[in-house]
Amino acid sequence: MLEILYRDEHLIAINKPSGLLVHKSFYAGKADAYAIQELRDQIGQYVYPAHRLDRKTSGVLLFTLDKDTLRIMNDQFAERQVEKKYLTILRGWTKEEETIDYDLINEDEIRQNAITYYHRLQISEIDLPFGKHQTSRYCLVEAIPETGRMHQLRKHFKHILHPILGCRKHGCNKQNKLWLETFNMTKMMLHAHQLIFNHPVTNEKITLNATVNDEFKRVGNILNFDLSLYTRPSQFPLPS
To answer: How far apart are alpha carbons 207 and 227 in whole angstroms?
Structure first.
């Protein structure tokens, strides 16, 4: 069963598990299950994704329950009126805060402007030898993408030489292998923990929070991060 974070007659939001595709995609390949189908079967109603999350990214995923609401939400996302906040664990210690303004090339070989703001939340140094170093450093950051390019956060953090832990394509494979062999970690440490927008019908400000998954918590514990400060659940009544 998918965890439902919010539901009314126009919208529904879930806490998407890591590894679940939102829908069928040429670029992502085939899968045995898709969030759009699982949610439709769970509630017995068609749903329409208002935005996307990568397969390996967990967290807040918003759907509409009708096409008119979908058009309104599409406009909000396109006009950058929706604030998306992510928690991620990176290799090394970043700056305390930074805006990454670095163009990305999309799947059609088109250059696109891409902007990400992040601020560092916590740092960690553990007794884990890596290369010539006897310890390894990591940090927990909150990232807020101003644009919504494919794999934007993964590519931007690679660009500043602080890749996301567990990211294969745009990460550090030596670190990923180290964590797999030492801690049996197989997931990517990227979680969409908050979505803020105005309700498309009532115009009420909606803030949706998604708690991190068990694997993110486990890695956070290894690094002595206090994740409870940033993962409070949403407080909305759900229809029975």
So the answer is: 18
